[in-house]
Every structure is written in structure tokens, then in C-alpha cells.
Amino acid sequence: xxxPAILVLTGASGAGKTALTLKLNELGIPGVDGIxxxxxxxxxxETQDASDRQAAILRHWIxxxxxxxxxxxxxxxxxxxxxxxxxxxxxQTGIEHAQIVLVDCDPLIRNERLHLxxxxxxxxxxxxxxxxxxxxxxxxxxxxxxxxxxxxxxEKSLQTLEGLVKGLLNRVRVNNSNSVTG
Length: 182
Fold this sequence. Notes:
With 182 residues, the protein is α/β, with parallel strands linked by helices. Helix content is 51%, strand content 15%. Strand 2, helix 2 (50-65) and strand 3 form a beta-alpha-beta unit. The longest helix has 28 residues, at 154-181. The relative contact order is 0.22. The model has no long low-confidence stretch (mean pLDDT 90).
């Protein structure tokens, strides 16, 4: 079983997770792949609550990424999972190198993106605002890294994400070289 590093991006719809993941993939960093976990259909029990479904989706992707034939060293997973649930899943699956990062922005900016860029005005609602506030509270309580896309051009946010990814990539490579020589 392979053990890549996992960087879980979480955040409300419109915060900028997918845009960052796509831009990261455009950089073509060897060994790094950004995956939008919600764009590929994963069989989950629809009777479960949303938190359990998101955990099942994260488990699915970790299982795919830890197959022996994977070439991915760092996977960036674009999700909407609760940070504490992501921690539970990562701990249960034994991922050695992992990080959870919140992508967040001002509610007015997020709602504008949902209306004008994504054409999903139905997601620009008080429930999504509450979800974003909840995720921010969890990120603060768990002392997670936060990429705030409110005022930053995507390039600056991408540089922040790239730095986090390269840090994980270096840890994986050092760990692999130690296990080969040790």
C-alpha cells in the first residue's frame, strides 16, 4: 500500500476551492494531483447524514490514492467536509502526512461568485453563509491554515496553496528517502 500525503481543502461553495485546485493542476508539479471529490460519482448511502456521506467520499478517495499503482505523492482533495470529520478519517486511515486547509472569503464575495461566475444563485443563501461561518469556526478552533480568497488575486492564493503542497511533498520525499536508506 502506498502512503501519499493528503491535503484536504474544505470550504463553502464559492469560496474558491475548485478554482485553486484547477490552477494547481495547471502548474504540473510532478507527483501532485488536485482532485475535485464531488465531480466524480462515488456510491454512498444516501440515508446517511451529510457529514457521514462526506466522510465516506473522503475514505473512497484515500483508498484510491493508497493503491500500490498510484504515482501521486501529494493529493489535494477539494471537498466540503467538516474539518473534525476529515481529521477522524485521516486518523482512521493511517495517512502519515496530512493537512486540512480552509478556503474562505467574505460572504458578499462568495455570493457574488455564486451568482455571476458559477450561475448558481440558489447556493447564495443564509444556509451557505452559516455553513461558511461554521467551517471558519472549526478551522479557528483546530488551528488550521486558512487561504482567504477575498481580496487576493487567484495567483496569490495559488502561491499559498503551492507552498503548502511543496511542504508536504518535501516531507513525503524525505520520509521515502529515509525508509530506503534506513
